[in-house]
Design brief:
The complex is a heterodimer of chains A (225) and B (186). Chain A has 225 residues and is an alpha/beta fold. Chain A is built from six helices and nine strands. In chain A, the strands form two sheets. Chain A has a five-stranded parallel sheet with strand order 3-2-1-4-5, sandwiched between helices. In chain A, strands 7-6-9-8 form a four-stranded antiparallel sheet, with no helix packed on it. The longest helix of chain A has 17 residues. By secondary structure, chain B is α/β, with parallel strands linked by helices. Chain B has a single domain, classed as 3-Layer(aba) Sandwich (Rossmann fold). Chain B has six helices and nine strands, in the order βααβαβαβαβββββα. Chain B has a seven-stranded mixed sheet, with helices on both faces. In chain B, strands 5-6 form a two-stranded antiparallel sheet. In chain B, strand 3, helix 4 and strand 4 form a beta-alpha-beta unit. The chains are: A alpha/beta (225), B alpha/beta (186). The interface between A and B is medium-sized, with 25 and 22 residues.
């Protein structure tokens, strides 16, 4: 059977990258990445830290990328997403998209409605995945992902740059039990950036970084090479 | 053993619609056997204690054009739960017509009668592009809209423990699945 052509709704973080890898492993053809560059750091819909680095990740995957800017205002950002999906369908003949949605009904219902309207399949292979299992999936699939943003007590500046490895997972489990933190950051507690995974032809490296924030809200903007 | 039946034509939908149901069963300490609907054998039906027919993607409704592939539902004398496309296929096997009926999002349903252990107002997660025009073979619960716009969200076969829900209880109201698994049925 002919492999279905998919676009990846891509933020550069662990979830969208893992979802893309699962699609690839299942025999689907990844045709392009679609990244929404939101000007609103508090967007409900889209991941924002280091979003501009998705271009470097696309190069590492040898995939074209559609970068769609948006002001990030609540429902307006959907119009921009719609435009990017139409562009992907026209340019790369995609038949569906794959997303890294895990639990957010807010995000997923909006994306599903758009896809249905455009007659695109919408695949969400991480949907309802147990969050610890999801982190373990990253290790099993040899992902190198680091934390580039935190936004919840007791996470602080010291978490920036930490790799998601066995030790980090154990600490996140402890924080889950003690502070009810979502261990894979599903509640926006932290954001990640993938530096290497089986989709990458070569690993990426941090060339430069800039840290900003206060108390339990920190971001690390990086320049990859 | 719980038989988990997938009606997904696209393998990638398995992760979203079938694996979460399998995970719920396993979290409850139950053994499961996963089968695609085209691969279900008599042995699976004999060895299981219950069956769950899972949902699939909004554009993935080939199964609804081939209800005879799940004809075993008619003779099966053990409890079945159909979720979304699974409910629709159950209804179709028993002669109901399936028509277009899109709904995506959270809805509040009023369960006037207890259904799979829940009663009263509950928020449910709806994600379907088709709906069943339910016939007299079934008791109906949680009906929204009227006339052509009527959507029946829950059904139970009158003479059997065959249940169907149009929404996705694995997203909201996981306890309905657990009640089905643990024999907490009305």
């Amino acid at each position: 059977m002919k492999a279905k052509k998919l676009g990846v709704l891509f933020s550069g973080g662990k979830d969208s990258t893992l979802a893309a890898w699962i699609a690839k492993k299942e025999g689907y053809k990844l045709c392009c990445l679609i990244s929404i560059l939101s000007e609103n750091p508090d967007s409900y819909m889209f991941h924002t830290p280091d979003i501009k680095q998705t271009k470097k990740q696309a190069l590492a995957m040898n995939l074209p990328i559609i970068e769609q800017p948006t002001k990030g205002k609540k429902e307006d950002e959907l119009k921009d997403l719609r435009e990017s999906l139409i562009q992907a369908r026209n340019l790369y003949k995609i038949e569906g998209i794959v997303t890294g949605a895990v639990e957010s009904v807010y995000q997923s219902t909006r994306i599903r409605k758009l896809c249905y309207e455009l007659k695109l399949e919408c695949f969400n292979p991480l949907w309802l995945r147990n969050q610890i299992r999801l982190l373990e999936d990253l290790l099993e699939n040899e992902f190198k992902a680091i934390i580039v943003g935190v936004a919840a007590f007791p996470l602080g500046k010291e978490w920036l740059g930490r790799e998601i490895n066995r030790k980090t997972i154990e600490e996140l489990k402890t924080l889950q039990n003690k502070y009810k933190i979502n261990p894979s950051g599903e509640g926006g507690e932290f954001e990640t950036l993938v530096l290497d995974c089986p989709l990458f032809k070569k690993p990426l490296r941090i060339k430069d970084k800039q840290i900003s924030g206060e108390k339990n809200s920190w971001r690390m903007e990086v320049e990859l090479e | 053993m719980i038989l988990i039946v997938s009606v997904c034509e696209d393998r990638l939908h398995y992760y979203e619609f079938v694996r979460p149901i399998n995970d719920i069963c396993q979290e409850e300490g139950l053994k499961t056997r996963y089968k695609h609907y085209l691969e279900v054998e008599n042995k699976d039906l004999e060895e299981c204690t219950k069956a769950i027919i899972c949902g699939t993607g909004l554009l993935d409704y080939k199964i609804l054009k081939n209800p005879e592939k799940l004809g075993w539902i008619k003779k099966f004398n053990k409890p079945i739960l159909g979720i979304c496309a699974g409910m629709q296929i159950i209804a179709e096997v028993f002669g109901c017509r399936i028509v277009e009926g899109l709904d995506i999002g959270l809805r509040t349903l009023d369960f006037k009668e207890e259904f799979l252990g829940i009663k009263g107002n509950h928020q449910v997660y709806s994600m379907h592009s088709m709906k069943a025009l339910v016939n007299k073979e079934f008791e109906k619960e949680c009906i929204l809209g009227q006339g052509e716009k009527e959507i029946v969200h829950c059904i139970k076969k009158r003479d059997k423990q065959i249940y169907g829900v149009l929404f996705h209880p694995e997203v909201r109201n996981k306890e309905m699945i657990i009640n089905f698994l643990k024999n907490r049925l009305e």
